[in-house]
Specification:
The protein is of the alpha/beta class. The protein has 18 helices and 13 strands. It has helices at about 15-25, 35-45, 55-60, 60-70, 85-90, 105-120, 150-160, 185, 195-200, 210, 240-250, 265-275, 285-300, 325-330, 345-350, 355-360, 365-375, 390-404; strands at about 5-10, 30-35, 50-55, 75-80, 95-100, 135-140, 170-175, 215, 225, 255-260, 275-280, 310-315, 335-340. The strands form two sheets. The protein has an eight-stranded mixed sheet, sandwiched between helices.
């Protein structure tokens, strides 16, 4: 991350130290002042790429700070939590974004980077100085109702650092279930834009700064490209448009997680061909295994795949219909993870729009999802503290309980 100069204006010592710590750890060069008058002086002395200010302190000084800036700099205001009227007032006064005072590090990082990208101040780079090339992971199942969306959402949030490992990665979650995708529902989001709108905007498909504006930020730091709000949007998206959208967004992210749903069409097939990792979600019963076997045979004959393939067994019923060893024998592959039966936690998670790896981060299911994320990211991903502290033991206990 480039060390963009950021000005922090906060009379509150606690908030000022928090911002200095978060932004400094992310690689930004910060300068801190206590009052709006000090901020105006600092802005006259040198240029800054971004201003982060405590709302109540600068409520009447946003215009003055704008006028003092040597070059136009976007401004993020930290507003009191729960005060919707104050947030609206800050936006009307000229703030570019407003964030509640109980923000997480990941949320602040996502908002700061989005503003810097939109203002043309930063272009994220990879470890070698070149563009970041996002690793694509697809989630797919030929059978519906097996938890494909749930696992894709939870894996994306955990990859983004939303489970608490302290390391933020840039993660894009794409909902490619183009008729009835529910990624936004699982995250309690109400997106203004969706993938159909992006694919119909020629300017966005040619300009990454415009394309980024079609994404919706989640508090975990995950960026979401939502499914069409109307099933009719499905018919307007072509493979060529999807290819352009992925090409323009991919350099911005470390990981791209795609919920491909359950329908195999030309766009899904194309996405599977682009993927670095396939996650096939399986329910342990004969019909689901037969469908998966037919899918694999079809892909072997018709598609050019380069991805590593992993299978995940999701126990969506309390009693297993087939043993895991039967699944392994039929697929001739060992599942990378088994998600234990957790009906109450799972239903609550979906209904509340809070991923399981956030709401129940020490549960056996979160431990199993952690195993899945390790398989996706390998050594690049640091296991978060407190999540699945003893994953193997938690998994064994859950399986033993289900079998009793």
């Amino acid at each position: 991350m480039p060390s963009n100069p950021i000005l922090i204006c906060a009379p509150s010592t606690e908030l000022r130290l928090q911002l200095e710590s978060h932004l400094g750890d992310l690689g930004y060069a910060t300068t801190s002042v206590r009052t709006p008058a000090d901020a105006v002086s600092a802005l006259r002395d040198r240029p800054f790429d971004l201003i982060v200010a405590e709302g109540l302190a600068v409520s009447g000084a946003i215009g003055g700070m704008r006028a003092a800036s040597q070059t136009p700099a976007p401004m993020v205001i930290v507003a009191p939590a729960g005060d919707v009227e104050a947030r609206i007032a800050f936006l009307e006064a000229g703030a570019d974004d407003v964030i509640a005072s109980h923000f997480t590090r990941a949320e602040m990082e996502a908002r700061v980077e989005a503003l810097l990208i939109r203002s043309g101040k930063v272009r994220p780079k990879g470890p070698g100085g070149g563009p970041v090339a996002g690793k694509i992971t697809t989630f797919f199942s030929p059978k519906g109702g097996v938890g494909t969306t749930t696992l894709a959402v939870n894996a994306a949030v955990m990859l983004a650092g939303g489970a608490g490992d302290g390391r933020v990665q840039h993660v894009l979650l794409i909902d490619l279930d183009l008729q009835f995708g529910q990624v936004a529902t699982h995250l309690n989001l109400s997106p203004r834009y969706d993938i159909a709108a992006l694919c119909s905007d020629d300017l966005a498909l040619a300009d990454p700064d415009v394309a980024i504006s079609y994404l919706t930020a989640h508090s975990s730091g995950t960026s979401v490209l939502a499914a069409p709000t109307n099933p009719e949007g499905d018919f307007r998206i072509t493979v060529e448009q999807l290819e352009q959208a992925l090409a323009i967004l991919k350099p911005r992210f470390d990981h791209i997680v795609v919920d491909c749903g359950t329908r195999l069409d030309p766009r899904t097939l194309w996405m599977l061909e682009q993927a670095d990792t396939h996650i096939f979600v399986i329910f342990p019963e004969i019909a689901a295994l037969r469908a998966t076997s037919l899918l694999l045979s079809f892909l072997a004959e018709t598609a050019t795949l380069r991805a590593t393939t992993h299978f995940v067994v999701n126990h969506i019923f309390p009693k297993e219909l087939l043993k895991t060893r039967d699944v392994q024998n039929l697929l001739k592959a060992k599942p990378v993870a088994e998600i234990p039966y957790t009906e109450v936690d799972l239903i609550r998670s979906v209904n509340e729009g809070v991923p399981l790896v956030t709401s129940r981060r020490n549960s056996p299911a979160a431990a199993a999802i952690q195993q899945l994320v390790v398989a996706i990211a390998g050594n690049e991903w640091k296991q978060p503290a407190g999540v699945g502290r003893d994953a193997d033991r938690a998994r064994r206990e859950a399986l033993r309980a289900r079998g009793s």
